[in-house]
Amino acid sequence: MKTLFRLLAGSSLFLPAITLADELNGADTAWILTSTALVLFMTIPGLSLFYAGLVRNKNVLSVLMQCFAITCVASVVWMVCGYSLAFSDGGSANSFIGSLDNVFLANVGEDSLSGTIPESVFVMFQMTFAIITPALIYGGFAERVKFSAVMLFSIFWLLAVYVPVTHWVWGGGWLGERGLLDFAGGTVVHITAAVAALVAAVVIGPRRGFPQTAMPPHNMTMTVTGAGMLWVGWFGFNAGSALAANGDAGMAMLVTHLSAAAGSIAWMSMEWVRFGKPSVLGIVTGMVAGLGTITPASGFVGPGGALVIGLTAGVVCFFATQFIKRTLKIDDSLDVFPVHGVGGMLGTLFAGIFASDQLGVFSGQGYNEGMTMGSQVGVQLLGIGATFVYTAIVTFILLKLVGMMVGGLRVTAEQETEGLDIVLHDERGYDI
């Protein structure tokens, strides 16, 4: 018996450690640290290069500068009060916004935990989401806005739109209480950013010459490089939102990849049929559409649902792009709303459908107790509508306020013609 006991005791050294709910888990921590780096990689350099390649060469540095500067400003805002207002418990009487308990991260210490990971890691992971969201907005009014206006708007918008909506959905607010399914940011990131971009494009007006003058991307190699970085970084965005190294993270990564691939194929096919040739711009835009659309559903659906979501995203977002620019003639410069906005709304709705475990090969993880497909879809529509309306109203007010503060949002006509690189930064992207 003593020999058997020693063998059993020795073998336990090779078994995985059992971790309690409020105990630090090394595997979870390592994965979220990795995911945090991946999400930041999405903004710098991923989104920066993706956007920079899409504009004209006289504005390439201005795009890179905006993304870099927004990263810096958003990080400080998040540390000062953004995290506290989004995730600190505001009490049951306040489901709109959090408290100021963690201003300047006052109570975030080396030993404080958020679930099974250090709270510092959770703060940093969520910070990367707060960074990329206002950076996405810039694509709606690129090539024509003052740098000072972009900086002020980004600060105000983070506090007035992003932080409250984050609290509604993930911080214990009213949409989360109602059971909204948004795994990684369909409402919090994509709808808010895209609606803000659309409102800004309308308020600021189109670029000089739009839509008569062709404004093709100046460097598709740069755009494809950025797109590849976005695809890889998105695994941290979606799979990292499981906040653990587990099956949820694994499935989120799998469905994210499948949706991106399906979105690329669908958009490329639509172009091939309609215009006779598939374009590189089309296939990478379809990828972004597939990624944005699967984001809210990534932790709730299975591979079959992800395939449908990606294919639908490629088709619907393709037509949305044509409608916004050719029918409505809105100069959403880099197609933020038709790709991220339409995709985010579509994915949030599909999360309420394909999360069902009663759809055979298209089944997902199942609804929360007491929820049916009808009730879940109702909550999803409520989340979409509330986020859309709130973001549109507050963004419009902020744009008018910032415009008064800096003497107008736009650069002059002459400055726009010369290019923002020289006008705003006294530098050129290319000196050939």
Describe the structure.
By secondary structure, the chain is an all-alpha fold. The protein has one domain: Ammonium transporter AmtB like domains (Ammonium transporter fold, Orthogonal Bundle), CATH 1.10.3430.10. The chain is built from 15 helices and two strands. Strand 1 and strand 2 (117-118) form a beta hairpin. The longest helix has 34 residues, at 373-406.
Total number of helical segments? 15
CATH 2nd-level architecture? Orthogonal Bundle
Proportion in β-strands: under 5%
- The fourth-level CATH homologous superfamily is Ammonium transporter AmtB like domains
Determine Rg (CA atoms, Å).
22 Å
Helix/sheet category: mainly alpha
How many extended strands? 2
- Distance between termini? 82 Å
CATH fold label: Ammonium transporter fold
Q: Supply the number of structural domains.
A: 1
